[in-house]
Amino acid sequence: MDPVPALDEPLKKVLGPATAKVMAEHLGLHTVGDLLHHYPRRYEERGRLTHLADLPMDEHVTVVAQVADARLHTFASSRAPRGKGQRLEVTITDGSGRLTLVFFGAGVHKPHKELLPGTRAMFAGKVSVFNRRLQLAHPAYELLRGDAEETVDTWAGALIPIYPATAKLESWKIGKALQTVLPSAQEAADPLPESLREGRGLVTLPEALLKIHRPHTKADIEEARARLKWDEAFVLQAALARRRHADGQLPAVPRRPKPGGILAAFDDRLPFTLTEGQRKVSEEIFADLATDHPMHRLLQGEVGSGKTMVALRAMLAVVDAGGQTAMLAPTEVLAQQHHRSITEMMGELAQGGMLGGADDATKVVLLTGSMGAAARRQALLDLATGEAGIVIGTHALIEDKVRFHDLGLVVVDEQHRFGVEQRDALRGKGKQPPHLLVMTATPIPRTVAMTVFGDLETSVLDQLPAGRSPIASHVVPAADKPHFLARAWERVREEVEKGHQAYVVCPRIGDEEDGAKAKKKSPEDEAEKRPPLAVLDTAEQLARGPLAGLRVEVLHGRMQPDDKDAVMRRFAAGEVDVLVATTVIEVGVNVPNATVMVIMDADRFGVSQLHQLRGRVGRGSAPGLCLLVTEMPEASPARQRLDAVASTLDGFELSRIDLEQRREGDVLGQAQSGTRSSLRMLAVIDDEEVIAEAREEATRIVAADPDLERLPALRTALDALLDEEREQYLEKG
Q1: pTM of the full predicted structure?
Q2: What is the dihedral of CA 693, 696, 698, 700, to 10 degrees?
Q3: Facing residues of 67 across strands?
Q4: Which residues of 480-505 are buried (b: 16+ CB within 10 A; e: fewer)?
Q5: Which helix (H) or strand (E) holds 67?
Q6: 648 in the Ramachandran plot: left (φ > 0), alpha (ψ -120 to 50) or beta?
Q7: In angstroms, rounded to a whole number, what is the distance separating the alpha carbons of residues 390 and 399?
């Protein structure tokens, strides 16, 4: 008997170089173990045929169906002018619908002999439309004879696994390759501790692999899935639990605010009371700051829930304790905005070392890449001497030249905009690891937070401060109902007449060069044959047309930093009626007098992004209005997405909708290094219970045995999950 290949055996030794090359290049599968974890996407039942009625256009599909009819036609063409061209049309059916297969030229001979009426087979190809009928041109196929030994062997039982495949490698070829390596499943080391596995009634890993690839019943599939989901959740949570445990061993300087210090003075100045949520979250943060291990906390808050206030109070607590704090913002516009709003909120408390500064005052400095040399030198000096207790900046803060006297807290705004390396570089500037507070206004469902930010404790601000107004949102179908768009501009004029201001957001700037970038079009662009609307063109058309007479200005990312700041200052001061901008205003821009936002080509933005943008209006006492302009037809998925945004202001609900519409791999973003998600079976949204329980189990096991000495198989699984790149990600996270 042949020896069973080991799980780390390269596929080229087992399957041959040609197949292994396609698997590596198109499916990212390199070893026997990789192939065993390439699970079927779904299963076809031998006795029941797939639904031909539901085939998706332009996708590579595999169907199981029966030949109803096969006809050979001859035709004349440039290649066969004498009417010698041959076309074979085969109609297949599954009871729900019919589908035409076409074969041309020399390719007709084999199927003409094999695809006789009554024959059952698996067919794979790309769905296209010809003469308003769905068809597969030159599909690959595998006959299901049922009596031939090989077929029975390959497609064991009544359930046929359909694998994620590519045009170069059909599902059944992957199935055959799996037959070759399946005996190796017996060698799979089980990462789940036996007590945990038995306590939860889960099958062993070898058994799960066997049942997922060669199920005899639907119960086999369910058992295998339940087990493999647990594997993925548990191994990932064990990696994060080890990270949290290691962080918990690091030393940090406890930072407790002193009585009667700058924090107390700031609280006394506040013209309003903090919300219950702000108070609760602040207490969680102060408790973390008082410990001798670094805080790692994620602060999630709806747009406008007062996260900046909570972060500022944490920063002041650290300044009270003699430390410095750094706030990292993703753009210069946002860094300047934070600097302006924080110095305004602090008043004389931000004038340390200056005439008129309060006794407890500190300096609040701004550090961005575009600052003049003199201002930059002064800012660097204030940081090095400790004169500045608070610095707000962009990635310029991370440069080697920047030295801190005693960095105690790093606040990262809009986490998803920063690479882990940037956060890490800033954290490395403390004498001991500083405390870390990460903020995001993109609501993250609990399970995603546990998976992506699993090494951070999470706080949520879910109340809006008093005095905030509701935002009404409406979809404006510009193509179906052009008069709705005309009415939208009337509404903008009405708001301006009341003394308010408006934003108009466009997907693009408009001065792009006609280079390669312009040529690459998304499928939607292709469908519409129209590039996305641009800021510069739109501003000009509005100023000449429906908004003539109003003060219209533009703001976009390619403007000079000083020009951007000047426009924002004029807008904040009420000297601009309508700001036509790109998504540069998405985060943190705070102009309470702006009450209406019109988002052009709204279907070109993601759900979370639309929610973020909308949060820029309704920040004062007057109600906000957000108009989502689109030319997409009513039944399209893009319109359904916009209707969902218009129907709720609950960011967590919207983030669920967003995630359900996107693939799992996108959800985990950076946490998945490489192109393939390590989650093949686990669905972050649907498997909330498994993830929560796996987190608890992993935390308990790691606390008892941090190096996992008693669980060598789990250590091996972690090593496989945490290739170097991923290990670094978690190290830095």
Answers
A1: 0.65
A2: -140
A3: 92
A4: eeeeebeebbebbbebbeeebbbbbb
A5: strand 60-75
A6: beta
A7: 17
**C-alpha–C-alpha distance, residues 422 and 732, integer Å:** 9
The pLDDT of residue 662: 55
Contact 535, 582 (CB under 8 A): yes
Q: How far is CA 405 from the centre of its chain?
A: 37
Q: What is the DSSP string of 414-467?
A: SGGGS-HHHHHHHHTTSSSPPEEEEEESS---HHHHHHHSTTSEEEEE-SPPTT
Q: Which amino acid is at 8?
A: D
Q: What is the DSSP letter of 512?
A: -
Tell me the pairing of strands 407-413 and 324-328. Answer: parallel
Q: Return the sign of the alpha-carbon dihedral for residues 113, 115, 117, 120.
A: positive
Residue 512's pLDDT is 59
SS3 365: strand
pLDDT at 499: 94
Please report the sign of the dihedral spanned by the C-alpha atoms of residue 594, residue 595, residue 598, residue 599: positive
C-alpha to C-alpha distance for 653 and 190, rounded to whole angstroms: 37
Rounded Cα gap, residues 340 and 364, in angstroms: 10
In sequence order, the 6+-apart residues with CB closer than 8 A to the CB of 545 are none
Whether residue 697 contacts residue 234, with contact meaning beta carbons closer than 8 Å, is answered with yes
- Dist. CA 22–CA 550, nearest whole Å: 60
Q: pLDDT averaged over consecutive 10-residue blocks of the chain (733 residues)?
A: 70 86 86 89 64 67 84 74 77 83 86 90 80 81 64 53 80 85 88 91 94 90 93 88 84 89 91 88 95 89 79 95 91 85 89 71 90 90 92 84 91 66 71 87 69 74 70 89 91 94 89 47 45 85 92 88 86 92 73 91 86 83 91 81 85 71 45 45 77 90 90 83 52 43
Residue 665, pLDDT score: 42
Strands (E) located in 516-593: 552-555, 578-581
Measured distance CA(85)–CA(137) in Å, rounded: 16
- In whole angstroms, what is the distance from residue 234 CA to residue 240 CA? 10
Strands (DSSP E) contained in 483-541 are: 501-505
Measured at the CA of 84, the angle between CA 81 and CA 90, to 5 degrees, comes to 125
Sheet containing 594-599, strands listed edge to edge, beginning at the edge strand earlier in sequence: 471-477, 624-630, 594-599, 501-505, 578-581, 552-555
Six-digit token string for 445: 């469902």
What type of residue sits at position 183?
A: P
